[in-house]
Write a structure and sequence with these properties.
Elements lengths: L4 H11 L6 H11 L4 H13 L4 E2 L6 E2 L5 H4 L1 H4 L3 E5 L2 H10 L5 E4 L12 H4 L1 H7 L6 E5 L4 H13 L5 E4 L15 H9 L5
Parallel strand pairs: 3-4, 3-5, 5-6
Antiparallel strand pairs: 1-2
Helix pairs in contact: 1-2
């Protein structure tokens, strides 16, 4: 059975969303076919507004203005610590914990020479230029991988000695059981052990 071109075009558009396969895209589009015209227009307008979204000129987080609300918050900037993350999703995860009170820097990935991703593509120079006398510490909240470790080492080497650099801990999740963990996770947990 041939579907109308308008539906096929919408399914193709939905299929471009990460994690959305052809079946899910078709289900979503068919459910939207039941919406009234004003609901569809409102949805369309909301999606179009994404084209007007900016990234903060300081940290790389999404914003409607030139600077995001975190970078404009004097309490957070005076905290003196920058948390470096790979992606905006990582930034949001740390914000949900409500345990970090400084500012962020979004790299947008990790160093990967095989994929053509070097320091320039990640804007590491922008991060280094942010390090002034008001910044005492950097938390590297980059995922544990060969590329992530290389990225952290590269950043560490570019920073002044006076800046304290910490890497977030990795290892056993809360409620996890040793018998179900892979060797690499256990290795990281042993490397990141704490004195009691």
């Amino acid at each position: 059975m041939e579907l109308p071109e308008k539906i096929n075009n919408s399914v193709d558009a939905f299929g471009r969303i990460q994690g959305v396969g052809a079946k899910t895209a078709l289900r979503q589009v068919l459910s939207m076919c039941k919406w009234n015209k004003s609901e569809l227009e409102s949805f369309s307008d909301a999606i179009f507004e994404l084209s007007k979204l900016n990234t903060c000129e300081i940290c790389g987080f999404y914003t409607d203005e030139k600077k995001c609300s975190i970078c404009l918050d004097e309490k957070r900037t005076s905290f003196g610590t920058i948390c470096v993350v790979e992606s905006i999703i990582d930034c949001l995860a740390i914000e949900r914990s409500r345990n970090f009170h400084g500012t962020f820097h979004v790299l947008g990935g990790v160093l990967n020479p095989l994929m053509g991703i070097g320091p320039d593509e990640l804007g590491i120079d922008v991060l280094i230029n942010r390090i002034d006398d008001s910044v005492q510490g950097l938390i590297l909240a980059v995922n544990p991988s060969v590329e992530g470790d290389a990225t952290c080492s590269f950043i560490r080497d570019k920073l002044p000695e006076r800046v304290q650099v910490d890497r977030i801990g990795f290892g056993i999740p809360m409620g996890g059981s040793l018998e179900y963990l892979d060797a690499q996770t256990i290795t990281k947990a042993l490397e990141n052990r704490k004195k009691m």
